[in-house]
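Chain A, query sequence.
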Amino acid sequence: MIEFAVETTAGGIGVVRPQGRLNMSSARRLKEIVDGLVSQGTTRIVVDLAETTFLDSSGLGALIGGLKAARQAGGDLRIARPTEAVRTVFTLTNLDKVLRARDSVEGAFDA
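Chain A, predicted structure.
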């Protein structure tokens, strides 16, 4: 089972931390969380993948859907601190070109 920690920083950035396996059964919840943040006006979002142990195509789809929603609202979605297993999935699918991993949540929106 996966848990999601969600917070909004003082700078107005939404931070989502999936903890566990981001797969078909949990991807819908991630999409709902991101869509909820965007609908509440939080359009800059960081998904912290430091505790995500597995990522499949459904999880990738949820991330891309969240990216699209954030950008359509004038913001962006960034990923931070992916585990090696997650980083490998991004590399194999070439999505590392679209969602470049950041080294920290705090610096995800730095230039």
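The chain has one domain: 3-102. DSSP finds three helices and six strands in the chain.
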